[in-house]
Each structure stands twice: as structure tokens, then as C-alpha cells.
Amino acid sequence: MNKSWNESARSSLKSANECNEYFGENIFKDFHFPIKIPLEFAERIDKSDPLDPLMLQILPKEVKATEGFFDSPVSDEEHSPVKGLIHKYPSRVLLIATSVCAIHCQYCFRQNFDYVSHDILKNWPDIENYLMNKKEVSEVVLSGGDPLTLSDKKISKILNKIEIIGHIKTVRLHTRTAVVIPSRITQELIDILDKTRLKVVFVFHINHAREISDEFMKNVESLKVHTLLNQSVLLKDINDNAKVLSELSSKLFESNILPYYVHLLDKVSGTERFLVTDKRAKEIYKILQTLLPGYLVPRMVRDEGGDSKRLVL
Ligand code: SF4
What integer is the mean pLDDT of 239-251? Predict the structure, then answer.
């Protein structure tokens, strides 16, 4: 019998010892950002390749202070008028739906974020009051952590609360869980999303075509009535190559997902090894445009200290 997504989450690798035993190598160590790797993702790693692009995303390294890298480079806290809510752009707000992720990506830009004070259900009266007075906000982005680590019941509860605010038309879910634990796309979740009056947009976080399993492709079929997009982070030695990004776009399109953004790395302390220079990023982008039709070329962008997203190429 197939495992439920909850069982998958529970059986994830969560320490250096478990990882070293699983991969048969003594290469994992526990550092400040705890290890979390679902077995569904671990199984996709080529154990014989120490430079496997999936392995490089989850292998922890010791953090050393480096000039130009900061604990919180995207200034989320400065744009949080109410705990749990981040408001950087006039028409949309982001809700920190949970602190939990299904996987811990070592390049994560929120690995030092103070999640404890940002519980949206606890802070809902203040969030609702803020949103009621912001008629220009038409879209709520559910982020985290990863909103799909919440139970279907909790997701339904959050959607019901958003639906009450008449001028909110769209809900956007940013998720990596759906790809690293594909069984997360449950029938109950599909039903909840089909019933909401809100327009639903998914933004998957997928960096490499090898992350996409047959199970994900099959399950995501059930979501195709919604808008399906993907964003990636441009990561050195993982996807800093036009051919790799082109393969990702083509694979996404097989599942009716459009490539939306490739983000240049947010300079979080400890992530120096993932940095791709602007010069290299521009070279990659130029080639990528020759390999794909325009609608499969994601926009390459960088978050500039919390201000509007800047199209860099
Ligand atoms: S899923 Fe996103 S928020 Fe979670 S650890 Fe990975 S990059 Fe960070």
C-alpha cells in the first residue's frame, strides 16, 4: 500500500547519522539548519555521484562569515506591518502560513527567519483587520515554510477566512512539498481548491528536471484547472547551465506548468557555494532564449532588499 503524505513526512531523513547510513557515505554533518530530506527526494539522488545536483541542494556545510552575505538579506521583517503578513507590493500580500517545510534546502533564504511570532491563525484578527482596510490588495500568497505541510483541514480553514474578504480574488500557493512528496496532492486538497471562490495559482519550487517524478506528473494532472507556474533558484553546479534549465522548462511543460521565475540567489549567510555571478547568469540566459520558445523562458530576477522585484535580464 502507498504511504500517505504524512507518513512520508514522518519518515524523512532528519539527522547526519540517518543520512550517512542511507547514502552509505560519511559526508553529512549536523549544522545550524537542521537536515530534512523526504525519502522520495533521497531516492532520486544518484548515490554514486558526489556531485549529484539533487544531493548538492541538501548537503549541509559549515557556515562561515562572508562579506556581502547576511542572515536576512530580503528584509521581510521590515515589510511586516502585522505579524504573519508581509506586504511589499501594492496588490498582494504574503502570509507566513507555517514555519514547516517538507525539505530543508541549504540555499534557503528564510533559514534564519523568526517564525515563532508569525502564526497567522493566532494573529488572524489583526491580519483580517489589515486586509479589510487595504482594498487595493487582490491577491494573497500563502508561503512559509511551505503551506502544503499544513493539513487539508487547516488549509481549508485559512481559505475560508480569506474568502470572507470580498476584494481578495486570488490565492497563490508556493510549494516545494508537492514535488518532494507528490502524495501531498490528495483528493481532499483537490476538492477544497475546486470549491473555493478564489482563483487558485500554484507556484512550484523546482530547480532541476530530475526532481520531477512520474508520481508528481500524474498527481499534478488533477490541478490543471488552476494556474500552474514554477520558480527556481539559479544554483552553482546544480542548474547554472542553459541546457539544464531548458530541460527543466520542457519537463514542466509536459505537466502543463509554465516556468515563471529563475531567482538569482538571495545572499544568505552560508550559501556562498551556490552563488552564480551576474556575468555567468547573463550568459546562461542568452543561450536559454535560443533553446526555448519565449513562453518557456522563465524571467530571471533578483529580490532587491525587499523592494519591487527587479527584472535583471
Ligand atoms: S522549501 Fe523553500 S522555504 Fe523551505 S527550506 Fe526549501 S527553500 Fe526554504
Answer: 98
